[in-house]
Specification:
Shape: elongated
Number of strands: 11
Oligomer: single chain
Distance between the termini: 42 Å
Order of helices and strands: EHHEEHEEEEHHEEEEH
Number of helices: 6
Structural class: alpha+beta
Strand order of the largest sheet: 1-7-6-5-4-8-9-10-11
């Protein structure tokens, strides 16, 4: 396992055990598969292996090292969840648990369920998305004048109530980014990347207002930052 500062590669069961050690009851149903804590014998085996790898220490009780403990606490205490889903089913979902600090979680396993968790500042979230497989290969960014806002567009109208998989089934939608309020499980906003023959678009919808922009790198970064900022403002109220 690669051990880097603020970055760990874990099996799903290892992650669930670490969450349980921090009194977190669930993984907030981010992914399609429901994961349950393994039985006591398996938990003991996992803890033994985590001790061997230096992730957990045993004194009177099992205690995880501070840096991974911070990441697990970020997941437990997050107020919002940002889920990135691609229409390409070979590309796995990514999740950002957003709170006072953020933990980025992504699948790394194919045949076995493994995840990588690492800390990610607010300013890094759009960069991580932009540099990932989730991002579309746009063909319009260099041709956008101004902010690229398209007024009175009907593109991706009336889609706010749809879930992440349903959104990616809509014609032209290549990727979705959904912001959820963890406390009540409700969607706060979504951002869609839409491809057409000649143009690509960004659609942002919070259930009340919907905006359509011709795709540009700058606008993408701004819109990701904006939905996170507005989400934090709503949660504080």
């Amino acid at each position: 396992m690669e051990l880097a500062s603020k970055s760990y590669n874990l099996s799903m069961n290892e992650l669930l055990v670490l969450l349980a050690m921090k009194n977190a009851r669930q993984l907030y149903g981010v992914f399609d598969k429901d994961f349950e804590l393994p039985d006591e014998a398996e938990v003991n085996r996992i803890i033994f292996n985590l001790v061997k790898r230096g992730i957990v220490e045993i004194d009177e009780h099992a205690r995880m090292r501070d840096d991974i403990g911070d990441l697990i606490e970020n997941i437990r205490d997050a107020g919002m969840l940002l889920i990135a889903t691609s229409a390409d089913e070979s590309i796995r979902d990514m999740a950002f648990y957003i709170g006072k600090k953020n933990t980025f979680l992504r699948f790394t396993g194919v045949e076995t369920e493994r995840v990588r968790i690492e800390e990610a500042a607010d300013s890094e979230l759009s960069r991580i998305l932009f540099e990932s497989e989730w991002m579309i290969e746009n063909n319009t960014s260099d041709m956008v004048v101004g902010d690229g806002l398209i007024k009175d567009s009907e593109l991706c109208k009336d889609l706010f109530e749809r879930g992440k998989n349903e959104l990616c089934e809509v014609q032209g939608v290549k990727a979705s980014l959904i912001l959820m309020d963890i406390a009540d499980g409700k969607k706060m906003a979504h951002l869609l990347l839409v491809q057409d023959i000649l143009s690509d678009y960004i659609v942002v919808d919070d259930g009340l207002d919907r905006s359509v922009f011709q795709f540009s790198d700058r606008q993408f970064n701004e819109m990701v930052s904006n939905i996170i900022k507005k989400g934090k403002e709503k949660i504080k109220k």
